[in-house]
Amino acid sequence: MQEPDSFDLEGAGATTGTEAEPEATRRAAGVVESSRANRGWWDRNADDYQIEHGTFLGDGRFVWGPEGLDEMEAELLGPPEELKGKDVLEIGAGAAQCSRWLAAQGARPVALDLSHRQLQHALRIGGSFPLVCADAGALPFADAAFDLVCSAYGALPFVADPRLVLREVRRVLRPGGRFVFSVTHPIRWAFPDEPGPEGLSVSASYFDRTPYVEQDEDGHAVYVEHHRTLGDRVRDIASSGFRLVDLVEPEWPLWNTSEWGGWSPLRGGLIPGTAIFVCERD
């Protein structure tokens, strides 16, 4: 079975040395197993990821997905000139490119990631903001510590219970604060993860919420990705105390001729690849 689309290519099944290729399957995977597997995957694969995709992401851009939608233009967190002095938490920061852009606008970002190795790349690139290695389901911050929280393909697609993350985000947000996050568009789970014509035919049920798992020879998960339908995402947001104010489905721009995993100009011109949820805490 082919993996679902993932902007961070977390299902690429990369191995080192003489390790056996993991087995791809669909099976149940809980909160602890998912967190442990994905932390290990990113620690092993962060170097290759930054080599392959660092140029597209840049050192100080804020890109919401493989379509290339830039926060400077999208203003989903608000006008750039209004970010000055704001306390902002980035979840699933990777090498902290988005936090670096936020800092350049005068904001006070904190970059959080599950992977220690990804944060080492953030240190390599540089920046004066804090880096925190922690699980998004247990944020190590005080209540009402941030004005804004953002996540570009971080955490939400890879946790067994996204409501744990959403409730933690609500806790650390100040009243009136905004949380914006992007994930693989749920409809992509019905299609093969292929950039060409073979990726345009439905091959699985959109309603099958069984997690995608890559596991080793002993059956231990080494990577996990979880599917939520569009309706699931909306219900998760509402039940966690947020108000959904916008749902953005970026169209593939003519300037972007690159392929990234299952994303491509061909597929991007026909079906959505990214969903961005703009939420506010009352």
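Second entry:
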Amino acid sequence: MKRTVTRLSTLLVLLTLAVSCSKDELVAPIPSPTAAPSSQDATRDSHLALGNPSGAIADPYYYWNYLLVKPQFTMSYHRDRGVPNWVSWHLSSAWLGSTPRQDNFSTDASLPTGWYRVTSTSYSGSGFDRGHLCPSADRTASIADNSATFKMTNMMPQAPTNNQQTWANLENYCRTLVGQGYELYVIAGSYGKGGTGSAGYKTTLDAGRVTVPARTWKVVVVLPEGSSDASRVSTGTRVIAVDMPNTNTLSTSWGSYRTTVDAIESATGYNILSAVSSTVQSTVEARVDAGPTN
């Protein structure tokens, strides 16, 4: 009898424990799904964080080196050439969205009073494209951002092959880098006089008011997303520099035109990464990029 009671007591304890464990499993919190990692660091930073290459000034007296500041990019504009000396812009995922290309080329009313304003038809029939410095596809977060890139102050006469293929391939590669988690500082410009477009060689357009450049150049500084960008440029930072002839017969591979920042500075007289430490500049500006091109 005692054995029977003992067995029944043991079974009752085991049953109680089983029920208790079952209840614990039912009320235990269910872990939430882990969110996919996303960039929290992408910001819109100063377009001149790495320097003002020509020391441009926002004073109409300096018509050959006039500083024109917009939310989307900053430039040095040359009144008598009718094109920018250079345009500088920051590029990160914070600048990119789903806004379609606006194609609304227009004069830039922000130029000083009395200055000639290049029009949307100034390049018509010339054999040269209205070539963007800051690309439309780099500013797709809003209509206002995209429309800003179609101001004629952001254009230079580019041979169609230069603009639509070689130059465009580098632009696309830059956005590929952004998709990989980098932020870029891009400075682009032109120099010289006389290029060959689809209708032959020309030195000026629009009755001499727009100069056709002989060369087009670009410098791209590649950084992981972060802050205090100028101080993060190191001797190991990737810096891409290209200098291309403004012709319709150049190679479509932008990598063929890689050069040094030093060489571009020698050709233009600019100090392109002036906000970066001089020690770092001396290393990265003397190096020809050998990284991937797509």
